[in-house]
Amino acid sequence: MTLVEKADQMAEHAHEGQTRKEAPIPYISHPRAVAQMLKDYGFSDEVVAAALVHDVVEDTPVSLDDVRRELGEEVAELVEAVTYDDSLSWEEKREKYIEAVRQAPEGAKAISVADKIHNAQSFMTGYRAQGKAMWQNFNRSRDKKLWFEEEMLKMLRETWQHPLVDEYAALVEEMKSLEY
User: Fold this and answer.
1) Helix (H/G/I), strand (E/B), else coil: 19
2) How far apart are CA 64 and CA 52, in angstroms?
3) Is the pLDDT of residue 138 over 80?
4) Does the pLDDT of residue 150 top 90, yes or no?
5) Which residue of 49, 92, 124, 149 lies most exposed, with the fewest beta carbons within 10 A?
6) Which CATH superfamily is domain 3-176 in?
7) Which pLDDT belongs to residue 172?
8) In the annotation, is 95 catalytic?
9) How far apart are the first and last CA of the chain?
10) Whole-Å CA distances, 25 to 16, 20, 167
11) Interatomic CA distance for residues 49 and 46, integer angstroms
12) Residue 167 annotated in active site
């Protein structure tokens, strides 16, 4: 089994029974979409594998040590860089995340921005179906969500040049224009 296949299997098992916030679809569709985006841009198998498991430490019982043991040190380091610290408040968690991604290698930036792109695309799809009720799916207000998206975008523009950053910027602008 290849590294990407092992990562896909780990993610599928870890996210079994979970669904997306935006729609009642299996959660595994999200990491697979993020991974496919990065594969399409030619990122390494390690980055694609890390994209597949980018949420397992945060959202499932799988530990970073499990990721390291099954998928290797490089994948674990990428996952660690894009994992929120749930011991912090919402704002502190996001500030720490932004700084972790700022200091992280290109692969972690790619996973982070592809994750944000897919989340924004999913939000926009949900918004078209549910209207402004979509904003209720988040733990913080529209203003806080947009603050985070804008801070992520600012950091990415300062640290990394890639077409994914431009795609994310367009989605952030679109989200800002939505009624709430």
Assistant:
1) strand
2) 14
3) no
4) yes
5) 92
6) Hypothetical protein af1432 (1.10.3210.10)
7) 96
8) no
9) 47
10) 11, 6, 24
11) 5
12) no
